[in-house]
Amino acid sequence: MQDLAALEGLVGRYMLFGRIGSGGMAAVHLGRRVGPAGFSRLVAVKRLHPHLATDVAFTQAFLDEARLAARVSHPNVVSIDDVVVDGEETLLVMEYVHGRTLAQLTSRDSGGREAMPRDVAVALVLDVLHGLHAAHEACDESGRPLGLVHRDVSPQNVLVGLDGQARVLDFGVAKAARRLQTTADGSVKGKLAYMAPERLEGGPSTRAADVFGAGVVLWELLAGERYFGAEDEAAMLPLVVACAYRPLPLENAAALDGVLSRALARDPAERFATADAFAGALLGVVAPAARSEVAGWVRARAGGALDAVTAAIRAIERTSVPPEEPMRAPLPLAHEATTDDALVHRGHRSRGNRVGIAVGAAAVAALAAAASLRAPSPPSASASASASASASASASASASASASASAPASASASASAPSSASASASASASFVRRAPRPSPRPPEPEAPTDRR
Fold first, then answer.
1. 425 in a structural domain
2. Can you give the CATH number for the domain in which 314 is found?
3. Which of 51, 217, 286, 289 has the fewest CB atoms within 10 Å, measured from its CB?
4. Threshold 0.70, pTM exceeds
5. Structural domain range at position 383
6. Are 371 and 222 contained in the same domain?
7. Cβ-proximal residues to 23 (8 Å cutoff; 6+ apart), any chain
């Protein structure tokens, strides 16, 4: 048995492990994207087969799948995360969904083909129809419809996760009006058992062909057998061309037959106009199962296959530790102050504070002198009070001036003013008007942060 946790190679920033699936163009591997600071993420990596990697046409078709699918963002469509072209390696990186395809879940290895519970089958096909409708409505960067058609709606291209949700995958054979690589004239891509009859007759591929394919998938899930009966494509071909509706081999299925007969009509014009309309008709006749019920059905069908994958994922995450990068010092921003700048700013604030103290002392002295002049006292007492206030102002200003060598000369002039109260008040007022305002407080330097 293949070791899914064995490292098979490193392409770009992706570690490739064991193969979990294979198709006509590529193999699908478990992968792990690694990045700086220990970042990692589990992904599914579609890797072009070696004999096709050097074929320009196949490589172009492979890249077209990424371009088209990347335009579709919906929970019922497997998302495309990245494209890697490295030498002769071409990788398509997708979200990893822990689950199985409908083909695997309904194969004989998973318990044989048998009728699925109606509500579970309807829940799964409703998810498929919602994903298809999102693809059909997808637009390019300018908002113009892409005209995207899957053209290969089949159990192999429906992935059901353990979360009970179905997702459409593999747009490798899709056709859009602006695709870079076109299918050769006359060639038909897809699976005959799910192919609309107009495609065999050379008609255009439209969303009606996807509605037909989804109808065949639903019929087979409900009936537990092939819609066209034959397993051999040679015997199946005339049945597909005739496309006569087969009623479901179930009891009390008249309402479902009414919906399916329209989805599987031979004339595309008689089918549901959109996948969304098909979904609405289904909801009108059968209530879908809850997500938890679908998840339980998947677990019962997947058996040990998913257990092996789960064990491999745990081994990958335990042993393939991405390398750590050394921490680098962040680059300082232009507005961040250096240590010297911070010291200069603090010095300016200290000098400004000392000047403010001197100004305040002189103003208090002037107000006290003015108040003494207005008091009703004898002239001698007034003069004595004025002289005392002047002396007090002189002492305060002298103390302030000695505390700050950078105080303006006007502070000294105020301190040595004449003994008259009016002269002292005038000098103090003149000092207050001329005193420079302290500079605004600059911002504190921010703590360094990791700017990576």
1. yes
2. 1.10.510.10
3. 51
4. no
5. 340-434
6. no
7. 156, 170, 172
Based on the domain organization, do 42 and 149 belong to the same domain? yes
Helix, strand, coil shares of the chain as percentages rounded to 5? 50, 15, 40
For residues 20 and 124, state if they share a domain: yes
- What's the mean per-residue pLDDT of the chain? 76
Say if residue 35 is in the same domain as residue 119: yes
How high is the pLDDT of residue 50? 84
What tens digit of pLDDT does each residue of 151-209 get? 899 999 999 999 999 999 987 666 544 344 445 444 555 589 999 999 988 888 899 99
DSSP assignments along 343-391, one per residue: HHHHHHHHHHHHHHHHHHHHHHHHHHHHHHHHS---HHHHHHHHHHHHH
Residue 248 and residue 139 in one domain: yes
Tokens standing for 115? 């009728």
Query: pLDDT value at position 430?
Result: 42
The Cα 300–Cα 69 span in angstroms is 31
Residue type, 392: S
391-450 pLDDT tens trace: 443 444 343 434 343 434 343 434 344 444 444 444 444 444 444 555 556 555 555 555
Per the listing, tokens 């232009």 go with 334
**Upper half-sphere CA count for residue 251 (Cβ side, 13 Å):** 0
As for how many domains the chain has, the answer is 2
Residue 159 placed within a domain: yes
**367, part of any domain:** yes
